Amino acid sequence: MSRMDDFRQGGTPFDGFLYADLGQDRAGNTVSVLSALARLGRDPWDEAAELSALSSTAAHTRLEALLARFYDVPAGGRDPRATIPSLVALLPSESTTRQRAGNALPTKMKLPGIGPIIGFALLVFFLVQNFFMGSDGSGD
């Protein structure tokens, strides 16, 4: 299922994690995990999916390494190491993610090539031509 389809259906299983608050940046804007990952040049949904597939310890280590490179949010009294376990807890389990993906309808359909489209157009043209300029039925 594409990410846009998830939005139309009311969200993704990663919303709790991605929209978790990390604090405010220097300009006073609230920074979520989603915006932090995007500012680091990562795709937030892909990163969340990869983190949820890891064990809790591995996800903690990877998220800590990612957020250690994020300098836009001053410490502000928050201990980032204390925040990471709560963020990892917001990730869906791999089984939850897999179950949702298994229930999804396929959205990526291969479009037909140009051949069938041209064939259909020629058939319509032939039928229209015979209808308006058809024979009188005498066979001559």
Report on the structure:
The chain has 140 residues and is mainly alpha-helical. The chain has one domain (3-103). The protein has 8 helices and 2 strands. A two-stranded antiparallel ribbon has the order 1-2. A hairpin with a 5-residue loop joins strand 1 and strand 2. Helix 5 crosses helix 6. The model is unreliable at 95-102 (pLDDT under 50).
Overall domain count: 1
How much beta, percentage-wise?
5-15%
The biggest sheet, with number of strands, parallel, antiparallel or mixed sense and barrel status, is: 2 strands, antiparallel
The beta-strand count equals 2
Total helical segments: 8
As residue ranges, the low-confidence spans are 95-102
Structural category: mainly alpha
What is the CA-based Rg, rounded? 27 Å
Secondary-structure element pattern, one letter each: HHEEHHHHHH
How far the N terminus sits from the C terminus, by CA atoms, comes to 58 Å
Strand neighbour order, sheet with most strands: 1-2
**Percent range for helical residues?**
55-70%
Chain-averaged pLDDT? 77
